[in-house]
Amino acid sequence: MLRSCTAGLRSIWALRGRREGAPRLSMDLQPARRLFSTEKVIHKDWALPNPSWSKDLKLLFDQFMKKCEDGSWERLPSYKRRSTQESEDFKTYFLGSALQTQSLWKKAQLFTRGFEDGLGFEYVIFKNNDEKRTVCLFQGGPYLQGVPGLLHGGAMATMIDIALGSCTGGAVMTANLNINFKRPVPLCSVVVINSQLDKLEGRKLFLSCNVRSVDEKTLYSEATGLFIKLDPEKSST
Ligand SMILES: CCCCCCCCCCCCCC(=O)SCCNC(=O)CCNC(=O)[C@H](O)C(C)(C)COP(=O)(O)OP(=O)(O)OC[C@H]1O[C@@H](n2cnc3c(N)ncnc32)[C@H](O)[C@@H]1OP(=O)(O)O
User: Fold this and answer.
1) What sign does the CA torsion over 10, 183, 137, 159 have?
2) pLDDT tens digits, 35-59
3) Where in the cell (predicted)?
């Protein structure tokens, strides 16, 4: 594990210094990343392979892309910034928020996508709408270390929150997150987060997930979450 992590780190360091929007060293390095420009902002889909992805992550990605072919599964794209419509939806609930300041609103981005390739959160989520469940493939990079050599529990909690959230839709907020950390996750390893919607009760969505190793032999964590659909009649600030 250490050797592959070191090899991964070497390729990560080779990529350091490249900033979002800067010209690519070689397009061959990132064949699958889609780039398109709108209003001078580059919207990059981050849920696609890059050179920092380990063999395990690429293999699982390919397996799930195959499952998408008959339409039962879909890959969820992932952007640093929410779409204009999504942003507007949330803004209506947080009228007093600091994000009303236009300059801050423009700078704000999803923090899991704020790292350079391979250093932080590398993940992709696949959704099965009929079964109301998602599978998140996650590789936690070296900047997410907690105890030496291990993934920080907060980083895991973040991914669990995102994975559970991916089973919801529309404007929702996490009200409760309950995590049992059963085994430590080695840094740079790949884990699989299986999430599902267990119950819908009015505006309350009850969800659960487990986090396992690629070979499914190790159960790293189990979690439940309560998400609340925001009420348009209420402002939360
Ligand atoms: C979309 C595409 C995106 C793809 C992924 C991108 C990733 C995005 C990011 C990923 C994710 C990032 C996500 C984040 O980071 S979200 C950020 C972290 N979360 C928050 O900051 C939430 C703060 N809390 C609130 O704003 C309010 O409390 C909310 C909005 C949640 C509810 O306030 P609201 O005034 O609307 O509702 P209510 O108080 O009338 O309650 C309604 C019902 O719910 C029940 N209840 C409430 N709380 C709890 C509780 N703790 N345990 C048990 N029950 C609870 C309550 O009893 C009642 O039940 P009932 O009496 O009706 O039976």
Assistant:
1) negative
2) 444 443 458 999 999 999 999 999 9
3) Cell projection, Ruffle membrane; Cytoplasm; Mitochondrion inner membrane; Mitochondrion intermembrane space
> Which residue among 45, 193, 209, 228 has the greatest number of ligand 1 atoms within 8 angstroms of its CB, and so is best to mutate?
228
Q: Residues enclosing ligand 1, CB less than 6 A?
A: 86, 161-162, 165-166, 173-176, 202-204, 226, 228, 230-231, 234, 236
Catalytic status, residue 161: yes
3-state secondary structure of 86: helix
Give pLDDT tens digits for 199-236: 999 999 999 999 999 999 999 999 999 999 998 777 65
Q: Which is catalytic among the residues 45, 62, 89, 161?
A: 161
- Complex ipTM > 0.90: yes
Give the whole-angstrom CA distance, residue 78 versus residue 59: 19
3-state secondary structure of 73: coil
